[in-house]
Amino acid sequence: MSELPVIPASLLPADGRFGAGPSRVRPEQVSALVDAGHNLLGTSHRQAPVRNLVGEIREGLSEFFGLPEGYEIILGLGGASTFWDSAAFSLVRRRAQHLSFGEFGSKFAQVTDRAPHLEPSDILRADPGSRPAGPAPRADIDVYAWPQNETSTGVIMDVTRPQGTDPDALTIIDATSAAGGMHVDISESDVYYFSPQKNFGSDGGVWFAAVSPAALDRISELSRSDRWIPDVLSLATAVENSRKNQTYNTPALAGLVMLGEQVRWLNANGGMAWAAGHTAATSSLVYDWAERTPTATPFVADPQHRSPVVCTVDFDDSVDTARLLSVLRANGVVDVDPYRKLGRNQLRIATFASVPQSDVQALLACIDWALANALS
Question: What DSSP letter does each residue of 137-172 carry, written as one string?
Answer without folding.
Answer: --TT--EEEEESEETTTTEE----PPTTS-TT-EEE
